[in-house]
Every structure is written in structure tokens, then in C-alpha cells.
Amino acid sequence: xxxxxxxxxxxxxxxxxxxxxxxxxxxxxxxxxxxxxxxxxxxxxxxxxxxxxxxxxxxxxxxxxxxxxxxxxxxxxxxxxxxxxxxxxxxxxxxxxxxxxxxxxxxxxxxxxxxxxxxxxxxxxxxxxxxxxxxxxxxxxxxxxxxxxxxxxxxxxxxxxxxxxxxxxxxxxxxxxxxxxxxxxxxxxxxxxxxxxxxxx
Length: 201
Fold this sequence. Notes:
Layout: H1 10-13, H2 22-25, H3 30-51, H4 60-76, H5 82-110, H6 113-124, E1 130-132, H7 139-151, H8 160-178, E2 183-190, E3 193-200
Antiparallel strand pairs: 1-2, 2-3
Helix pairs in contact: 3-4, 3-5, 4-5, 7-8
């Protein structure tokens, strides 16, 4: 077997490189969709932080980056299966819905409507427990508790609608266990952190 001047076997030098596993070469854009889906979820959380005062500026740079990545995947991110196309379309729809919603809220804030609503809400909020009943927690009750958590320094790592659904589930669970229709939610400080507490009343 001939050697090159550097002492490398000629047959090894000329052999095609096969370092990339076959599974990775055939994975398509699935892993990239997973990453951008996580980014869309984080973008939603960052915007909620901004609207609750935990961030000074909106995460516009992050929004542009996620949008660019979605366009890249759509136009030429690699081989796409039918399942990949469906998942990518779903993530794009989520991103567009969030972008439209947050854009509307930003415009409202710039026009002063959002700030006036928040100021009026804060004036009405006397810190008393929030009592709810029925089959689900109202948007106003959920926002009051959500803002109390944010003002306490523990900005929720989820958006307002997810929080409202969580409260509704907590309420129906307590109703089923106790047989009572009204549930009291309050935000209490424990060990330096703001915690959500609920009980039937």
C-alpha cells in the first residue's frame, strides 16, 4: 500500500467521508422545526413579560429572527415530508397569530389605550382575594391574578390565556372535590416568592 508524503495511506486518503450518520442525513427538517417551535413558544413568553412590565423593550429582534428562520425552512430548509409540511404550517400559523396579536397590543399601547386600561384596572385592584364560580375563570379575573404575580417580581413563564385555562381547571377540580360552586384565588408571599393559593368558599 502506497503512502503519501505525509505518511497517510493512499487508500484511506481517497476514501469518501462518511462521518455523518445515515439517520442524521435522512432526518429532514424535523429537528429544525422542533427548535423553531420552541423559539415561538419563548417569543410568546417574552412578549407577555414586556406587556407586564418585566421587559423594557419588546422582543422585536427575537421576532425577526424567528420569522426569518420560518421563511428559511419554508423556502429551502431541506427535504420535507408531508408530516414536516403540516408541522411547519402549524408553527407558522402560531407565529403569525402571536405576531398579529402582539402587534395590535403594541399599537394600542402607543395610542395610550392600553395604559389607561391598565391604570384603571390597578386602581380597582384592592388586593383582596378573587372569588370565581361557574364553569371557567373569566378573562378579567385571570388578568388580575396574572398582574399580581408579575408585580410581585415572579413574572409568569406562560401567557395569559394558558394561565386562565389553568385557573379554570383548578376551579373545576376544587368544585368537584368540595361540592361548592365558588372558589377563592389569592396571591400570597411565601419564602420570598409569590404563590397562587386556591380554596372553596
